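Exercise: predict the fold of this chain.
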Amino acid sequence: MARAVFYSFHYKPDNWRASKVRQMGALEGNQLLSDNDWEDVTSGGEQAIKNWIAEQMRGKSCEVVLIGASTAGRKWVKYEIEKAWDDRKGVVGVYIHNLLDSSGRSSSKGANPFGGVARQGRYLSSIVKAYDPPYVTSTFVYEHIRDNVAEWVEEAIQIRAKY
């Protein structure tokens, strides 16, 4: 049975890539929102967004941060990382810049989003792993993520148990 995880990513540029990762079926994830659904959530203000995130994370054992060109530094991605960590969930990053988007383009590699999150005097980038598939061809990147993401999630859960 696939682990239930929460996917975190920068919506506008990476929703297509995130959808491809989610459709791999290696993990059970949260529903991806449409632009209209996200507008409905955000129209309720910050507390409504936090409530939505909390509800989506409920019952999940790990957060998988899909790292695109501009994921690091995004307010809500950072919040999701902090919440997952504080809720004692595993946290892992997967670079997706070499997966093609709906227009057939890849993007540039983004910064590690865990470098901007500190807990107990340490940046999470010194604890949480961020995997960068060793390929530039989208098909190979996809296969590498599909074949390894479940193992990365298990490892992330074990790492979190130590801290």
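Check your answer against the key: The chain has one domain: 4-98+108-161.
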